[in-house]
Amino acid sequence: MPKKKEIEDVQLILSGSGCKTTCTVLFVLAKFCEVVLIIGAICCGVCGIILGLGSNSININEAIVAIQKEEGFPSEILEIPEVADFLALERGRQIATILGAVAVGAILLVLASILARYVYRFFKNLAHGRTPFTMENVDLLQKIGGWTFVLVGTSIVSAIIIELMAGVKNVNLNISISTIAMGFAALVLAVVFRHGVELEQKAKK
């Protein structure tokens, strides 16, 4: 558990003008990311609807054959195992895979925008608050950590499902170590901040 001296050092750092300026920049960037992610999710949703409505007239293999006739088409792409497996699928499954990928993309963008929202609120509190040690900040850090793991877990599971739908024989398990580390860091900071809140409450009594 963090000691009182360590908590005081954290408070001194976070209350400095340089740190407040940094937090201001970070909460503006987080807000920008939130808006961009929401717009991206809406675009994915619209694309999914358009693809769904026009799926009866889409034939991916015929489209690729037509594109191959264009000069400069990189035919080596078709030799990639994952691409070859996908093109070997029946037309209906190809469309379902594409629609599934679009739907997953929209879901991940929504989850990322929720995470960005909590990050925005946290750094905004640090930039404008008198003390960083509040239960609201503890709650935000816990939500940042929790939603980070939700985002990582959802991306892993959805990637496996999409690869299986696409007929990929060797499914790859891609895990973002840096993202997981960010989630753990947020939860550790939540413990530090909670202890800081407790020390401040004791000091006021």
Structure report:
- This protein has 205 residues and is an all-alpha fold.
- The protein has one domain (4-204).
- The protein is built from 7 helices and no strands.
- The chain has helices spanning 4-14, 17-53, 60-68, 81-87, 91-128, 135-165, 177-204.
- It is elongated and about 75 Å long.
Compact overview of the structure:
The protein is mainly α. Helices cover 79% and strands 0% of the residues. The protein has helices at 4-14, 17-53, 60-68, 81-87, 91-128, 135-165, 177-204.
> What would you report as the Rg, rounded to the nearest angstrom?
23 Å
Overall residue-averaged pLDDT value? 83
Residue share in β-strands = under 5%
- Choose one word for the global shape: elongated
Count of domain modules: 1
| Proportion of helical residues | over 70%
Alpha-beta content class: mainly alpha
Q: Biggest β-sheet, characterized?
A: none
Number of strands: 0
- Low-pLDDT stretches are none
N-to-C order of helices and strands: HHHHHHH
Measured between the Cα atoms of the first and last residue, the distance is 22 Å
Secondary structure tally, helices = 7
Descriptive terms for the model:
205 residues; mainly alpha; 7 helices
Annotate the secondary structure layout.
Elements: H1 4-14, H2 17-53, H3 60-68, H4 81-87, H5 91-128, H6 135-165, H7 177-204
